[in-house]
Amino acid sequence: MSGTDVTVHRPQEFPFPEPQKGSVDVLIVAGEHSGDEQAARMVATLLARRPELRVAAIGGPRLAAAGAQLLFDLTASSVVGLVEVLRNLGFFRRVFNETLRWIETHRPKVVCFVDYPGFNLRMARALAAAGISVKGGGTVRSVYYISPQIWAWKARRRFSMAEMLDSLAVIFPFEVECYKDTILPVRFVGHPFVGPDYKAPLRYDQAGPVLLLAGSRRAAVGRIAPVLLDGFEAYRKGNDEARAVMIYPSAAIRELLEAELARRPGVREAVSLVANSEQVAAAAVLTSSGTMSLTCALAGIPGAIAYRANPITYRLGRLLVKVPYIGIGNLILSEPIYPEFIQGAARPDRLAAELRDCLENPERVLRTKRLAAELREALARPPEGDAANWLAGEIEAARRGGAAGA
After folding, report:
1. Fewer CB within 10 Å: C terminus or N terminus of the chain?
2. For helices 362-379 and 291-298, angle between their N-to-C axes, nearest 10 degrees
3. Domains plus CATH for the chain?
């Protein structure tokens, strides 16, 4: 949520443009708003330390603002869930093929994949199969920032990742242990939300509004925003002075939220829409389970998680995912800083009750504050350095033709 909103050229045509300044040191591939933001923070720090480096990106506007040449805005088309991916399969196949062609043609020293495993791991495999990446006998180092959630599902991916990748930087300390039985060099680089240069976009304010965070992807927002608004509307029936804020990452999401509010005259005037470039203070939060739930937890804002997936996606997920929580803060702490209400459990009356407890129970606020401090300590940057330091080491290793894992 931090950073400056900028107007950038977001090419949606093929082929992707040529490099602006000759050979490219690193190509960043980030397919979601959260990955774009976190990769942008890494790139901005890297270029502040090493301004001579040349960075290109298949990502989003945050990476462009950080100084990367944006080849394609993949975040504008991010989707979640099996059903949504299948509906857009032709488009993603075109993007995939053009990304592979661009890398093969321009041979960046390093390709740094950021999260987005459905696309990025397939691309890493294709680079190896085509003899482009180091693991395939080529010269392009293939590295990964922000691990897929192998601790939640598809744990055996770690072995294929070790065969395709030269290095992995993780943002949760427990993830290093997950790869101990592979040959993949893995380094914990701290979480970007607790770095010294991170300006927290949220803070707790007892007198602030309720925060409603439905996410950043259209399909998910379309399902979750109504749930959050129903919960807030139920709470407001006994508290008609209550106000709420909804944060949006793009114009498309703002339009979706406006349409949802237009159908709700009972709360339309009580809910403000705020761009994600602005700082927000809140007294309580109802949030989806994505990156923003961790941001809220680190800020010490009491609240709850509400989530609804496509029914087919959810049923498949129940078979494959084996974790006690869907909120990352809850997983790190092994206890719920935010109670979770999933699918049918996300009822208006239950969410309204959570808001009442957050806003009227001082013990709830103190407990959230204590757990937020524990979260910050667990995610702090280690002495070995941050993500920008890791990526700079990978670029130097590529120049030397050195071993994997800086």
Report:
1. C
2. 110
3. 26-190+381-400 (3.40.50.2000), 202-379 (3.40.50.2000)
